[in-house]
Amino acid sequence: EIAAFRKSIEARFGEDGAREIARATASNKPFEHSSVPKSEQARLGEAAKLYSAARSGEVASRQQAETERLAARESQSTRLKQ
Question: How many domains does the chain have?
C-alpha cells in the first residue's frame, strides 16, 4: 500500500513535484499546488507529510541494506585473508 501511495503521488505531481514535496516537508513548510483547490490544501499537506515519511523510510531501508551488505562483505574478506 505504501509503494502504491508513493507511486500515485509521483504520478500526480511528477518527479519535480515529488522532490518539491520532500523539500517542503524537510523545511517544515506547507506544500501547495495550483492544481489542488484551496479547500483541499490541508489534505494535500497531510498527504505530503505521509509521502515524505514513506520516502524517508525507503531511503533508510536501502541504506540499512547497503550497510549490512558491506559488513557481510568485510567479514567475508577478513575470513578469506586468514
Answer: 1
DSSP annotation string for 14-44: HHHHHHHHHHHHHTT-----TTS-GGGHHHH
Q: What is the pTM for the complete model shown?
A: 0.66
Q: Which domain holds residue 55?
A: 2-81
> Please, are residues 30 and 24 in contact by the beta-carbon 8 Å criterion?
yes
Q: What single-letter DSSP state applies at residue 5?
A: H
Q: Rounded to whole angstroms, how far apart are CA atoms 25 and 44?
A: 12
- Per-residue pLDDT tens listing for the chain (82 residues): 888 999 999 999 999 999 999 899 989 998 989 889 999 999 999 999 999 998 887 877 888 889 999 988 888 877 776 6
